[in-house]
Amino acid sequence: MGGNIRFVNTESEHRYELYVGGIQAGFAEYVLLPGRVEFVHTQVEEQFEGQGLASKLAMFALDDVRARHLRVVAKCPYLARFIDRHPLYQDLLFAS
Predict the structure, then answer these.
(1) What angle do the packed helices 77-85 and 53-67 form, to 10 degrees?
(2) d(CA 26, CA 90)
(3) Which is nearest to 45 in space by CA: 37, 33, 57, 35?
(4) Which end of the chain is more exposed for a tag (fewer CB within 10 A), N or C?
């Protein structure tokens, strides 16, 4: 995987963004609701697939949600599977 990796929460766009070598390689879109973040879509550009970047983006986003003392609603299929497979993040799920 070439280049440096950088993550940004672009709140104005409601997206956690992933950059590789200065190029936007992916994002996780969300809706901010009272006390929770609802993830609706995660995408990694085709040229960056297969490098584990979606997992790194998910971890960054979920760690940020935890630091902000919020909960998660995982409407995005990728994030839902990621949380299901990583017990460390299951406590973040919003119980309706």
Answers:
(1) 80
(2) 23
(3) 57
(4) C
Mean pLDDT of 12-40: 97
Token pair listed for 70:
């919020």
pLDDT band at 1 (very low <50, low <70, confident <90, very high): very low
* HEC profile of 15-57: EEEEEECCEEEEEEEEEEECCEEEEEEEEECHHHCCCCHHHHH
Reported as a pLDDT band with limits 50, 70 and 90, residue 4 is very high
With a threshold of 0.90, does the pTM exceed it?
Answer: yes
- Spell out the residues 6+ positions from residue 76 whose beta carbon is closer than 8 angstroms to its own: 28, 29, 39, 40, 41, 42
Q: Do the beta carbons of residue 65 and residue 82 sit within 8 Å?
A: no
Q: What is the pLDDT of residue 25?
A: 97
13-47 core/surface letters (b: 16 or more CB in 10 A; e: else)? ebbbbbbbeeeebbbbbbeeeeebbbbeebbbeee
